[in-house]
Task: structure prediction
Amino acid sequence: MKESRLRRRYRAERRYRFYGKAAIAFAVCFLFFFFVAIVSRALPAFSQHEVLLRVALPDNLLKNLSTAEGEDANISEGAARRMLDAALAQELGGGGSAHERRARRALLTPLAALDLKRRVENLSASSVSSLSPSLLLPSWSLSFALSSSSERFLRAQSGGEQVADPALSDMQRDMLTALDAKGLVAKRFNLAFFTRSDSRVPSAAGIRGALLGSLWALLIAFLLAFPLGVLTAVHLEEFAPRNRLSALIEVAIYNLAAVPSIVFGLLGLVVFLNWWQLPRSAPLTGGMVLALMTLPIVVVTARSALKAVPEGIRNAGLALGASHSQTVLHHVLPQAMPGILTGAIIGMARALGETAPLLMIGMVAFIAQAPATPLDPATTLPVQIFLWADHPDPAFSSRAAAAILVMLCFLVAMNAAAVLLRQAFERKRQR
Amino acid sequence: MTTPDKHTDKPAAAKRQRAKIRARAVNVYYGDKQALFQVALEVPHKQVTALIGPSGCGKSTFLRCINRMNDVIEGCRVEGELTIDGENVATLDPVALRARIGMVFQKPNPFPKSIYDNVAYGVRIHALAQNRKETDEIVRQSLARAGLEQEVASRLNDSATALSGGQQQRLCIARAIALQPDIILMDEPCSSLDPIATARIENLIAELSQNYTIVIVTHSMQQAARVSHRTVFFHLGRVVESGETTQIFTTPRRKQTERYITGRIG
Ligand SMILES: Nc1ncnc2c1ncn2[C@@H]1O[C@H](COP(=O)(O)OP(=O)(O)OP(=O)(O)O)[C@@H](O)[C@H]1O
Ligand SMILES: [Mg+2]
Result:
């Protein structure tokens, strides 16, 4: 009788262990598939084909450059386009009809001419004055990004598959094959993805603007929510008398932590934009909305961290003649700090991934310029992902996946920072 | 284990002249519940007074009245008159009062900081030292008087939480005497310690009683008999009997006291 019960208990034990392991295995599999899916979709965004062209500088530009008159060295976009046309014609041959010229030009990204113009300007602004005229070469070898359809074609070709892309004519395909055969096409790391902001053209679209927008918004959210939240928690936990009012505030805060984030967005729209007239789409306003959203999380976690500090520490401080606030400041708060920081970082991580409230305050616009201050219009990483994922061009959806990867990296970094901070505090305490 | 030679070194009558702490008609309420009823007692100067009595009879509550630690308990109300050196504690500033009165708790509660910082903390907040050197000296002396110096001299910067329970309790005593208080309150200081650590603390109490007025709450009759000069017996929030420890333990006047001491109530 007794033995059979014991056996049953062992069986139950094994069964529970198996359930636990199965749950973990399921979670790990899920994470694995998630990562494989994201990474495989994101990888194309991290590399880009470029074509090397010899661009001949027109004589009048050369003359201007050698006289080192910076402003005169500017060229019009039209002139740049003509220089590109000439360079393409030189590599690919072919006739000079407008139709053929357009076909050749369409191999490159639509921004190629603008890109060339900028490079010429940069050159004239910076190095030319120090260059002696004799060193100035009449033609440069420059790399240019390709158009989305060329990019797609080259990728398909290197993958060994044939796709009939209606966006490319047979002639254009032959041209690309010819360029590739000449060894002029190279696959490079797509630095532009990190150094540029949003663009209509996928090859020029990057996450810099969204990243800066997110960082500004997070900074503002942290600067507002952390001190306010910690002070609130300290007051409620350590100083406020336990009465009806503090109970009411406590319930309100717990409820606030459960309010859907879009409600905070509405609040921001009504209060910050319409009433206070703060700038639309700005990280300042976004940060304030995110602060509202994280504040209850910070308060709740900070309170439980303070509650976990043993009563003996408070008694020890008070009995030594430390005032109430000295006891809290010198002993209770440092003891609770690891927990408070963990809570704050969890709140910040949630804020980093938040989209809904930001849509309400207009952070969902197409913004091609990185914000220099928190007052400039900007988007944030999740909003940028939302915008790109919706785009019909598949080059954008791979960029969305890449942006997701970047965001995940930031989340991991934040969590690692939380762990490191905790350890640092613990080491300090052990000392 | 040395027992303080308490009845022969100085005449007891001379000591009784000066009451360090005097309580008259002290009532304490936790909310609606009354915990102490009309407590009246005297604690003589530079002697050890033991508070004994069954659990929940209000010993800790009375101890907390002395340094006004009851103030921080929500809903706790203290009535009546309690004087230290003739001054009513209710009229004193609690922070200044607590600096004059050391307190050692049942559970050792060192700050989670270094051993040095534990002792130096009170010295710093009350600015008892002019410079770092003086602080060092106070820390060293306090540790020495708490009988801890030899054990921790080489690791003053280690965390206090790494010490053993008995060492932690002595550190708490060192922390309290670093402020050079007149009075030390101890609430069951040995209840979480083994017999050897207990013996060390008891020796320490005997030594400290040369310079300090000590009030100690204890559940051990033997301990009360060993360390104290006077004993006060509490029961259900009232002082039943108080007097010389020898008298209480040999010829108690009240039946209740006798029953408690012989282990029949509690
Ligand atoms: N913070 C408090 N809130 C409410 N009631 C309390 C509080 N502290 C003590 N009491 C009550 O006051 C009475 C006396 O408690 P006290 O802690 O002084 O007893 P004690 O003699 O120290 O007991 P023990 O020997 O178990 O420590 C008890 O009935 C207890 O329930
Ligand atoms: Mg007690």
Summary: The first helix of chain B runs from residue 12 to 16. The pocket of magnesium ion (ligand 2) is lined by residues B 59-60, 187 (CB under 6 Å). Chain B has a mean pLDDT of 88. The beta strands of chain B are 19-30, 33-44, 48-52, 76-84, 87-88, 101-104, 183-187, 213-217, 230-235, 238-244.
